[in-house]
Amino acid sequence: MIDTKGKVYIIGGGPGDPELLTLKAKRIIESADVVIFADSLVPPEVVEFAKEGAQVIGSKELNLDQIMDLELAAVREGKIVARVQSGDPSIYGAILEQMRILKREGVEFEIIPGVSTAFAAAAVLKCELTVPEKSQTVIMTRMEGRVDMPPGEQLKDLAAHGCTLVIFLSITRMTKIVRELTSSGYTEDTPVAVVYRVGWPDQKVIRGTLKDIADKVRAAKITLQALIIVGDAVDPEIGGGAVSHLYSADYTHRYRRAQKAGSGTQVSGNGKG
Ligand SMILES: C[S@@+](CC[C@H](N)C(=O)[O-])C[C@H]1O[C@@H](n2cnc3c(N)ncnc32)[C@H](O)[C@@H]1O
After folding, report:
1. Phi and psi of 81, rounded to 5°?
2. Where along the chain do its domains lie?
């Protein structure tokens, strides 16, 4: 156990654009004594707010023990540590093992959420991931690779839902992804977008369908730091544009009465959208 006033903040650094940091994340980075950032996915601009004299360390060549040694040495001296990770730390952030060690050592820590690259990519695509009548469910997942998937979570199992899929960590397995999805529920004309390095100056967007996306990604030579978004939500105007009731003038909910009746019947709901 460490007797200290030091503290570790595990911070969601967002997709890469420093303007997508939360105000809280920025404030903590500005005041931290030690900033350890995941420099494989977080550009230095995100931590350039560190105060003069702060130790700023990239973690891409460090293993967990080395990172934790740095964190624990700092908190032992009563220092504030900002551990800055990409997107939101709760999504493939490998924070569980860090938190176990911090808990074991009795070190106070706090998690500051960030903008996941899933949401930054949706913004760049100008798409709503949950489109009425098309998809009301979003699955964030990955393709099996060095990490085994738990039972029932293979891509072909998830494909049965036909909803919006956001696929992380899998851009090098495009051909297999397409094969699994088309053999288990999605048609070849399902829209797909690949967003490479969203929030970085060299961001790229590739749009296509399950039929042609693998070739397009290969031609663009994208082999890392990309998200794959699959489903009608990527191109919601295909087959007619559905609309949500939530802001419809003929829809009554807890906070607003309908102003006009649509087809003679007044729609009502619980205000949850
Ligand atoms: C270890 S996960 C981290 C995810 C992160 N915690 C989040 O909430 O977005 C790394 C994967 O996230 C995606 N990713 C991370 N940064 C990205 C970016 N700037 N643009 C597109 N995808 C990115 C890629 O799929 C990459 O393989």
Report:
1. -115, 130
2. 7-115, 118-234
